[in-house]
Amino acid sequence: MTRPLVDRLAIVGAGLIGSSIARAARENHLAGTIVVADRDPSVCGRVRALGFADDVTQSAREAAEGADIVILCVPVGATEAVAAEVGPALKPGAIISDVGSVKGAVLAALAPHVPAHAFLVPAHPVAGTEFSGPDAGFATLFENRWCIVTPPEGTDPAAVERIRMLWRAMGANVEVMSAEHHDLVLAITSHVPHLIAYNIVGTAAHLEETLTSEVIKFSAGGFRDFTRIAASDPTMWRDVFLTNREAVLEMLGRFTEDLSALQRAIRYGDGDALFDHFTRTRAIRRSIIEQGQETPAPDFGRRAVEKQKHEES
Amino acid sequence: MTRPLVDRLAIVGAGLIGSSIARAARENHLAGTIVVADRDPSVCGRVRALGFADDVTQSAREAAEGADIVILCVPVGATEAVAAEVGPALKPGAIISDVGSVKGAVLAALAPHVPAHAFLVPAHPVAGTEFSGPDAGFATLFENRWCIVTPPEGTDPAAVERIRMLWRAMGANVEVMSAEHHDLVLAITSHVPHLIAYNIVGTAAHLEETLTSEVIKFSAGGFRDFTRIAASDPTMWRDVFLTNREAVLEMLGRFTEDLSALQRAIRYGDGDALFDHFTRTRAIRRSIIEQGQETPAPDFGRRAVEKQKHEES
Ligand SMILES: NC(=O)c1ccc[n+]([C@@H]2O[C@H](COP(=O)([O-])OP(=O)(O)OC[C@H]3O[C@@H](n4cnc5c(N)ncnc54)[C@H](OP(=O)(O)O)[C@@H]3O)[C@@H](O)[C@H]2O)c1
Ligand SMILES: NC(=O)c1ccc[n+]([C@@H]2O[C@H](COP(=O)([O-])OP(=O)(O)OC[C@H]3O[C@@H](n4cnc5c(N)ncnc54)[C@H](OP(=O)(O)O)[C@@H]3O)[C@@H](O)[C@H]2O)c1
């Protein structure tokens, strides 16, 4: 039998991402032992029932003891407290990593708690759904998605390579970049899109009551597309906006400027400007589909899913 | 044999919506004869090959002659010119309808061309995909979707009832309201969502070249959800914004105000305000799913579609 990639893998936080990592590690035989920690006893019970961990504990420190790789899968704002608990338990040569959606703030929160005999290699899998908790995870979540690894300057290349290999073994493509650049790119690919989705759904919710009920009724006209990401976890997203403030405000500024230009074109009836803008945006979707990051099926394949369910019932 | 709902049904414009109506009418035996008109000879050829019409012609006037119901399925901005051609050909008792996404402007464009011996009953099926043309249509497009009918005041109730029955027979739920109210509701459920989707994709396209390529790569973080509606037909959407200006600017104003409040909360680190906002927006999606207007599957069911394709190949 070949040796697994990691002897003891510790995962702190059994939510969507943590439980998906545990499942992927288990299905692909990537770890000798998979230990999962979650502060909530009922979540621990659920993890035991789901059976994707060898050991389950409420104590992050206990999970980290003797682990070769520890991955924190908690909201960005909880990183510092969890790191303070886990750091002292890290054994010589251990790697501590995370999955946080913001990387600059996470680096600052983690670094002081990593002992000199351990390695810090933060990462962010660009994959997820609008659901949370241990039941929402699945082993193939990271397949053909990107995982961005943001090691601080001077990190031991061997430690970086182990984290790369782990993510590749879970089906992800890996890219390495600085935490700062990560935060700028994610501001436009993820954080601002979430903000404006949350915002338009909020605008609809503030309308007079009868109008809001009509918004729900006629949402298939486009609105419903936005409600998916506006149903994401509020704690996670609060933390993202609090910790990636500069980049989000910068990209939001560009968004608002561009929106003013479109608004002006509407006000003054400039059909050519509108037509030109609407033509240029098509190419981006085409590229995303070509790169395997999106389905070409009409309407995200919603119809196919509904039909399938219908035929099964 | 029972008599079909309509003896002669004429559809002008064989795009996504027109071809879907023809297919739905054919599959459900709703018309004795289905005539489809399209100005483009190659589209006419395609319609013949696809076989969902009994007669195909390049002339909208010819299609309308002798028809009991004529449905214009062209961009809102083309309505007036097509109505001028079709109006004089309408037989006594004929109903002229349309499917335009804006109703106030369409009413104004159509009304002068409808002879006194015919009836005008505009309608708007709130259903669609990001694709266009005769190949994109399908018979079930309107199933369990809403169709909004906006008869001008004083319209013969029997004519309104015929249009309602036609849409119901194609699987739609029908609601009647004024053109003005329709335009306000659709501004928030469809027009502003499309505008901000077009806008964020545009903002991403304007970034420095390397950043834009990273946006494409890491689009699974949320951005790709917006690219779907930003891939919709530019002509159709130019016309929507030019003809529903007032309501769009009104709703866009509310959106921008709300966005400023969120931006301020980010700038001043007001986590509670962000958390509250992000919590309230979840209920709206839940209602949309409960009302059967959206799939509860994670990620719009994208994974299920990919998996299905994978297993078939
Ligand atoms: N969701 C996505 O799409 C996505 C994608 C990429 C990266 N991420 C990142 O992944 C991380 C986890 O997100 P998720 O989607 O997996 O969230 P989730 O399903 O809500 O799970 C969050 C986990 O963190 C734990 N936790 C929360 N606050 C804590 C605290 N103060 N101390 C200790 N543990 C705490 C939770 O414990 P309980 O069981 O007690 O609730 C739970 O196990 C976040 O940093 C997020 O930015 C998310
Ligand atoms: N797409 C949606 O999601 C959706 C949903 C509800 C309602 N609608 C409304 O449905 C209508 C049609 O949209 P669609 O999605 O079916 O568009 P489409 O697939 O692009 O088809 C448009 C049709 O209109 C014809 N047309 C365009 N300009 C014309 C002109 N100046 N004179 C005569 N015919 C012209 C086109 O003819 P060619 O064959 O020559 O191009 C084509 O047959 C629009 O009013 C739109 O607002 C669309």
TrEMBL record, chains A, B:
Gene3D superfamilies: 6-phosphogluconate dehydrogenase C-terminal like domain, NAD(P)-binding Rossmann-like Domain. Pathway: Amino-acid biosynthesis; L-tyrosine biosynthesis; (4-hydroxyphenyl)pyruvate from prephenate (NAD(+) route): step 1/1. Residues 300-313 have a biased composition (Basic and acidic residues). One of its GO terms (biological process) is tyrosine biosynthetic process. Residues 292-313 are annotated as: Disordered. Its EC number is 1.3.1.12. It holds the Pfam family PDH_C. SUPFAM superfamilies: 6-phosphogluconate dehydrogenase C-terminal domain-like (SSF48179), NAD(P)-binding Rossmann-fold domains (SSF51735). The keyword NAD applies. InterPro entries: 6-PGluconate_DH-like_C_sf, NAD(P)-bd_dom_sf, PDH_C, PDH_N, Preph/Arog_dehydrog, Prephen_DH. One of its GO terms (molecular function) is prephenate dehydrogenase (NAD+) activity. Residues 7-296 form the Prephenate/arogenate dehydrogenase domain. It is an enzyme of class 1 (oxidoreductase). It comes from the Bacteria. This is prephenate dehydrogenase.
